[in-house]
Design a protein that fits this description.
Layout (H helix, E strand, L loop, with lengths): L1 E6 L4 H12 L2 E9 L7 H11 L3 E6 L1 H14 L11 H19 L4 E3 L8 H12 L4 E3 L1 H5 L3 H10 L13 E5 L2 E5 L29 E8 L2 E5 L2 E2 L2 H14 L4 E7 L5 E7 L1 H17 L2 H19 L6 H13 L5 E8 L2 E8 L7 H4 L10 H10 L1 H10 L1 H6 L4
Parallel strand pairs: 1-2, 1-4, 2-3, 4-5
Antiparallel strand pairs: 6-7, 7-12, 8-9, 8-13, 9-10, 11-12, 13-14
Helix pairs in contact: 1-7, 4-5, 8-9, 10-11
Length: about 400
């Protein structure tokens, strides 16, 4: 039999994919990555794949690698798709495919399979990475290619002894990892329907959050958070801690209409408590440490990178080149930001850095002022010289002011 490596989550879609692939003549190797999915029972997921028919079931603890290689660039580049979404699902896909391709090579497999539908972004993200890393591998996408309805999928599962959850099934389609949780489908498909309480699991509703704030000091080194209140933590542990603490205060809820890669609009509900805190603190520290021209130009690169990550272009020469620019800017982003967590908001209230460009003696309006006031007049004259000369020659605005002269 030909071997195929399946990106396995333990859910219904990837579980019914196993007997479907077996019926097609494949020996299935199921691979699940632990990238910090909340409440994921990885041993049970591993056992379920074998129960359903996989010849081998592999679980990889990738939390630290996911944080260091994929979340860290997003932090440094303040990457938010369409200004809001911290790219939760998009980040894990390149790592998942890296691992699957490596296992395919080790196991002499001829193909890779995923459980994405034909409407979503993930099919592109998975397959773009496969084509980039090994275009000779075949690709199978049972859920997309077989056009199953949910009801047909459940019937197929029962016919092939695939365990189906007993009781009321979740009305939502959920993807989660260390960086946050993405939720869609069900009642969320109506943009006029407010997301019900059960759509949220990582964050408390603001009306139920504590009436006193929490304060914390977040230390950054080269743009990456490395400690909370002076205690060093690996990035993945730091994110886990902030997810709990910020979630308690209702921080990180996002309800938005977004433009999918394939061109349709979708309503998405996201929770990213740690991301909200870290990104706010990082941006605040950049305001203190980045030179003006760099600070004004960097958002252009950030927007391009955010779009590229969302649109499955993580593996590309342009992405590498833009990240080189981002990395160069982060050498001075060192220091501590004090954050206030309260009633759904993460707010920077104080900051300090050895690379600070803030000069109190220049900024002050007190008698300690060291700014050369007399230099300002000459600066203004030179700053406006091009426009002044143009107007003296062409009189455009003068004629508009005096149309009858």
């Amino acid at each position: 039999m030909k071997k195929i490596v399946l990106a396995y989550s333990g859910g219904l879609d990837t579980s019914v994919a196993i007997p479907w692939l077996i019926d097609k003549g494949y020996a299935v190797i199921a691979v699940a990555l632990d990238v910090g999915q909340p409440d994921a029972d990885m041993p049970a997921i591993q056992a379920k794949a074998k129960q359903v028919g996989a010849i081998e079931s592999i679980v990889i603890d990738a939390k630290a690698e996911f944080a260091d290689r994929f979340v860290a660039p997003v932090i440094k580049s303040n990457a938010l798709y369409e200004g809001e979404y911290p790219l939760v699902s998009a980040l894990s896909r390149p790592l998942i495919i890296e691992k699957l391709v490596a296992i395919a090579h080790e196991q002499d497999a001829q193909a890779i399979a995923h459980g994405s539908t034909g409407k979503g972004n993930d099919q592109v993200r998975f397959e773009a990475a496969i084509h980039a890393l090994d275009p000779n591998l075949l690709i199978e996408a049972p859920i997309r290619d077989f056009h199953w309805s949910r009801e047909e999928e459940i019937d197929y599962a029962k016919d092939h002894n695939v365990p189906v959850p007993i009781g009321k099934a979740s009305p939502y389609s959920i993807d989660a990892n260390l960086w946050g949780r993405a939720n869609e489908a069900g009642v969320l498909e109506d943009p006029w329907t407010q997301a019900p309480a059960d759509a949220w699991t990582m964050t408390a509703p603001v009306e139920e959050t504590p009436d006193t704030p929490d304060f914390l000091e977040l230390t950054f080194e080269h743009g990456i958070p490395t400690a909370i209140d002076g205690k060093p933590l690996p990035l993945f542990e730091l994110i886990e801690h902030l997810n709990t603490l910020a979630g308690k205060h209702g921080i990180g809820r996002i309800d938005k209409i977004e433009n999918r890669l394939i061109g349709i609009k979708s309503r998405e509900v996201y929770e990213a408590p740690a991301a909200a805190v870290i990104m706010a603190a990082h941006k605040d520290l950049e305001n203190l440490t980045l030179e003006r021209d760099v600070a004004h130009y960097k958002p252009l690169i950030e927007q391009q990178l955010s779009t590229m990550i969302y649109e499955a272009k993580w593996i590309s020469p342009l992405f590498d080149a833009l990240m080189a620019f981002i990395d160069a800017t982060q050498s001075v982003v060192n220091g501590v930001v004090k954050m206030k967590l309260f009633k759904g908001q993460a707010t920077a209230v104080a900051r300090q850095s050895e690379n600070s460009l803030y000069n109190k003696d220049l900024a002050t309006y007190t008698s300690a002022d060291s700014f050369d006031q007399e230099a300002a007049a000459g600066f203004i004259k030179l700053w406006t010289l091009p426009a002044t000369v143009f107007e003296q020659v062409n009189h455009i605005h003068a004629e508009e002011m005096n149309p009858h002269d």
